[in-house]
Amino acid sequence: MLPQTSAPNFSDRDSATPPPPSRRDWLAWAGTAALAPLLPACGGTGNPGPAMSATMAWGRNEIRQAMLRSDARAASVALLHGDRLVWQEAFGVLDDTSATPATPDTRFNVGSVSKVLAALAVMVLVDRQLVQLDAPVVRYLPRFTMLSEDYRDITVRHLLSHASGLPGTHAHNMFSFAPLSGYAAGLEAALASVHLKHAPGALATYCNDGFTLVERIVLAVTGQSYPAFVQSVLFNPLAMARSGYTLLPLPEGSFAHGYIHKVRQGQEFVMGYATGGLCTTPGDMMKLAAMLLQGGEYDGRRIVSKAAVLEMGRDQGQGTHLHLTPDWHAGLGWDSTRHQGLGAAGVLAWQKSGSTMFYASDFHVLPQAGLALLLTGSASSFKPGPIAEGILLRALQETGQLPALPPKVSTAAPALATSSSSAVDAVLGIYGRSSKPLKVLSPDSQQIDLWIWSAPAKDWAPLCTGLRPRSDGWWWSDAQPRTHYRWEMADGRRYLLSREPATAGHYWVTMPVGQQMPRAAAALPAQWISRLDSTWLLANEASESIPLALGVGAAALRELPELPGYLFWDDSQFLLPLSPDRAGMAVQVPLNDGRDLVELVVETRDKEEWMHAAGWAYRRQG
């Protein structure tokens, strides 16, 4: 599941006639007063009270506008302040056909927000001394193995902080229109046939597979399935009666429907329960938030230790040595333990976002301010993050905890700086990542132009031209002044970083977006040359697969003339041959643009070649 960020969008998915999607497209505790049992506000939409009226008026308007922009049919929000659920409201309808209004009881799949519960489940096991965070995973899963020898160094902490080095996302039968079994076991089995993409703990790059392995650990040490364990240790004691995993069909009218090309779809089932399978309501999630605000207690009952809550909210990135953007502070399960937007206002916030094929959500807990919020909508293109941030900033202001909204950052271009032609020439070339690669060119060894690979055109397309160095150390374009770029060397590799103002406007978002590809040490072997310019058809997804319904079905293998010696798979990733029948991952990019890498493995069945990548099996077409 993708975490939603304010990073630049390099995708061409928003064009008028988008191509069929492929795998590249989807894949400091201060304490508060002890809380009374969480009290619902009056009425179906809540009683805002005089202190929150402006916050809610702003939020309602922004949610409705975001629904129109994304074509989400339904959305739902809940806001906790102290010991009260001060705002709970649903918007829109469950589907166009019935036009049944969404209510606060309407359920949504919240995607990677599920990871917070996975981390909590592990911390319960830590409290019970059944699991140690810094113990190797193989202690609990003795049959777990990979081709890289240092797989034995992966710890439970690495799984929960995206630092394991696992490839990214096991794609096979992850999203479907019916419940399917065996996803987590399938991942563990599949990992035996691939390598790590980096050494455990070397860097943090978003990884769903690590959380899926948590399911296997829970089963191994408790004898319970992951959904049953979470039900017993979290949902039941927190009275989260409308929360669970998509094990069985929900009653019609209890959930918001997703759409494909304006056609109503059935219920979405997410098979990766720990990484993204939670189905819930914002109101239920405020019960979990209340427990976190109370340091692990709820209604006088200890759910998890205060030390566990603290550890989840501690920055886990300090041990990694490839840390290009120090303003990102991932926790255990949390995307950020110091959310940048709230942090720019001097407020500590833990934050987790998530999206699935049909939903998008954002979850915040402010441990010092005693606030929490979940906002969700029924479209993957719904953008809850900036709205959630804006609601919380205004709630802080209305409750007297923030004197004023933070000022906008200045986007005025600073003075031009000088750069040598040799410095410009050094950064030229192709930059790889998990999705469409980038190309850096210069017409005169002074100006820099950025290009991006276009899958429909099978060629490069301009992304940002006329970049020149400025006195702030970034390269700006007068034609496209909002996004800036610079280059950094780390671990002997050159990285391209982007910066742009967040949607809220009062802080910058910096992301590493690509790794410069060095010249390959050798030409492609003959066996791989014979496979170039071929198309491979996805052949092992269940008939109920949502990716199949979205049009995912074929991937191409080629070699780009500008980067000989590398295989270019699915118009997205570069790989280096490891053997005549195996090609390995070739980039290490922190955060999002190094996620979901694949290792290609060729298998011959009845004299016919098949390609395996991230759990998917492809049959050669031509």
Overall description:
It contains 16 helices and 31 strands. It has 622 residues and is an alpha+beta fold. It folds into three domains: 36-128 and 201-398, 3-Layer(aba) Sandwich (Beta-lactamase); 421-516; 526-620, no CATH class. The protein is globular and about 65 Å long.
- Helix/strand/pairing category: alpha+beta
Helix content: 10-25%
User: How many structurally independent domains?
Assistant: 3
Distance between the termini: 32 Å
CATH topology of the largest domain: Beta-lactamase
Secondary-structure topology with pairs:
Elements: H1 23-26, E1 39-40, H2 53-70, E2 74-81, E3 84-92, E4 108-109, H3 114-127, H4 137-140, H5 156-160, E5 175-176, H6 183-191, H7 208-222, H8 226-235, E6 244-245, E7 259-260, E8 263-264, E9 269-270, H9 273-276, E10 278-280, H10 282-293, E11 297-298, E12 301-302, H11 306-312, H12 340-343, E13 350-355, E14 360-366, E15 371-377, H13 384-398, H14 421-427, E16 429-432, E17 438-441, E18 448-454, E19 459-469, E20 475-477, E21 484-490, E22 493-501, E23 508-516, H15 526-529, E24 534-538, H16 546-550, E25 554-558, E26 567-569, E27 573-579, E28 582-585, E29 600-605, E30 608-613, E31 616-620
Parallel strand pairs: 1-3
Antiparallel strand pairs: 2-3, 2-15, 4-10, 5-9, 6-10, 7-8, 11-12, 13-14, 14-15, 16-17, 16-23, 17-18, 18-19, 19-20, 21-22, 22-23, 24-25, 24-31, 25-26, 26-27, 27-28, 28-29, 29-30, 30-31
Helix pairs in contact: 2-13, 3-7, 3-8, 6-7
